[in-house]
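Figure 2 data, in text form.
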Amino acid sequence: MKVSNLLYITAFFTGAAGLIYEIIWDRYLLLILGSTTLSATEILASFIGGLALGSFAFVKFSRKIKRPLIIYCGLEIIIAVYALVYSMSLKYFTQGALLTFPKGIIDIFQVLSYLSLLLPTFAMGASFPLLVAAQKNIAGKSLKTPGFFYGSDTLGATIGSLLTGFVLIPSFGMEFSLWIGISLTMLSAVIILLIELNKKVTLQLIIKKTNNKLWDTTTFKIFPLILIISGISSLGLELVWTRILVLIFGSSTYAFTITVSVFVLGTALGSLLIIRILPTLR
C-alpha cells in the first residue's frame, strides 16, 4: 500500500478516536454536572480551543522539528494515556464523590476539567498538520492534500461519533468504548512509526511565496475575521441544536451525538467537494 494512503487511513483513525473521546467525556461530564448545556459547552470549547492552539503551535515551531513523524507518534501515545487517566478520573467523580463538596468546589472542578482537556486536544491539533506536511513531502505539494486529509479525518470523526453514541455506549458501555478509541489512537501511532522506520522521510513544512494575484494582501487580512465569526456562529448553533434535540429525543447523549456527527459530516463533505472545484478558481 502506498505511504500516502496509509497517512489518509491514519487521519481517518485519528478523527474517529477523537470523537469517541469527545462523546464519552461529554457523557461523563453530564453525569457529574447534571446539565447538557454545561457539559456540551465545556467539551466543545475545550476541543475547539485545544485543536486551534495545537495547530498554531505546530506552524509556529515547525522549522525546529527535525523528525515530525516521531513527534506524531509521541503525541498519539500521550493522547491514549491521557484519555485513559482522564476518563478514569471522571468515572470516580460520577460515583458521587463530587456531591460531598460545596458548590464552589464544583465550579472549580469545571474550570480544572476544561483546562485538563486542553492537553489532549492540543496534541490532536498538532498531529493533523504533521500528517499534511508528511504527505506534501512524499507526494509533492498539492492543493488537494489538506482537503483530502481534512475529509478523511472528519469522515472518521462522523463514523466514530455515530458508532459511539448509538452502538458502542448503549450496547457495551463507556469503558469498552474508551478502549476502542485508545486502540485506534495506538494503531495510528504504530502505522506512523512503521512509515518512519521504513521510509526514513525527513519532513519539513515549507512556506513559499506565491505570485498568484487572485489572493491579495487585503483578502488575507480579512480571512481571520471571517473564520472567527464563522467559528462562533457554528459553535453557537451546535449548542442550540443540541439543546433542542434533547427536548425531542429525551437523551442528551443521542442529541449531542446527532449534532456533532452532522456538523463533522458536513465538514467532511464540504472539504472533499471543495478540492474538486478549487483548481478551477485559480
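Caption note: Residues 3-205+217-281 form a domain with the Growth Hormone; Chain: A; fold (CATH 1.20.1250).
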